[in-house]
Specification:
With 295 residues, the protein is an alpha+beta fold. It has 12 helices and 11 strands. It has 2 domains: 163 residues, Jelly Rolls, CATH 2.60.120.10; 109 residues, Orthogonal Bundle (Arc Repressor Mutant, subunit A), CATH 1.10.10.60.
Length: 295
């Protein structure tokens, strides 16, 4: 497998002496290509209906307002102009270091919701309009604040958003983002570990149910209750995440990727991929075919 030749590794303006960096700008379009960076990023966009947002293997067309938190160090992302015709786009980007909350501090009880949010955002986290309305006043005025007052407002933004974790949507799949997700249940963890190891193979319900000592029917209900999705949907998401990563990072043919990731039919693979990602595998790959730059 050849290394990823598609995404810029961005060097952000955040200095080691600052808690965060903020850019609040009016613009008429998006021109920056797909990129990643080690810093965490909270990105708010207004009046940009029709823009295409790519975070990992998630590709969506946004509405007038968009608020996304990304904490995955290698998670590629970009906002592309696509069908947006607005001439009055506003973008507020806040970047902050992963060590802003040193280990013992972030693990205090008072920061539990923020800690959970930062962990979830490794896959990219999209907040609902309700959350945007809650923090907009603070976001709107943050660039005009300085010193400790700015830090307090920034922490307030993170706290308010962390209360919406259960309503926020995870964007990229974990297998694409290369993140090991562990469920609260040890039995579910055991199944997830098996799937992560054997996703390239045929995986049968009776094998998984025997792993945790349940009947197939009871296991299906148990898995849906604990994870919120059917086993078959979970398995497809894992396979599609790995397939998406290979489309980005390798020169393998789509047919090779299909069979490497556990799909047994190229037509079925193309159909499922298009249904889940809203584009064909070929188009997904082309979205990442940007010239790599080292900056």
């Amino acid at each position: 497998m050849k290394p990823n030749l598609s995404a810029i590794r961005e060097i952000t303006p955040l200095s080691k002496e600052d808690c965060f960096y903020i850019a609040d700008r009016q613009k008429k379009g998006f021109t920056y290509p797909i990129h990643s960076h080690s810093e965490y990023e909270l990105n708010f966009i207004a009046h940009a209906s029709g823009v295409k947002r790519i975070v990992g293997d998630s590709i969506e067309i946004i509405g007038d307002y968009d608020l996304v938190l990304i904490t995955g160090e290698d998670l590629e992302h970009v906002w592309e102009q696509h069908e947006c015709r607005s001439q009055q786009i506003r973008e507020i980007t806040i970047q902050f270091s992963s060590d802003l909350f040193f280990a013992n501090f972030i693990r205090k009880n008072q920061f539990s919701t923020i800690r959970k949010m930062l962990e979830q955002a490794q896959n990219g986290l999209c907040f609902p309009m309700e959350a945007i309305l809650k923090v907009f006043r603070l976001l709107d005025g943050l660039s005009s604040k300085q010193g400790f007052a700015a830090v307090l407002d920034f922490l307030s933004i993170l706290h308010e958003l962390s209360l919406f974790c259960d309503k926020a949507r995870t964007l990229s799949s974990s297998s694409f983002a290369k993140i090991n997700v562990k469920a609260d249940s040890r039995r579910v963890q055991k199944v997830q570990e098996y799937i992560n190891t054997h996703y390239r193979e045929d995986i049968h319900l009776d094998v998984l149910s025997k792993l945790i000592g349940m009947t197939p029917a009871a296991f299906s209900r148990f898995f849906k209750l604990r994870t919120g999705e059917r086993l078959i949907d979970y398995l497809i998401d894992i396979r599609l995440g790995h397939a998406s990563r290979l489309l980005v990072d390798s020169t393998m043919s789509i047919s090779e990727i299909c069979y490497t990731c556990g799909f047994n039919n190229i037509s079925n693979f193309n159909r499922i991929f298009k249904k889940r990602k809203s584009c064909a595998p070929k188009d997904f790959r082309e979205n990442y075919r940007k010239k790599k730059m080292v900056i």
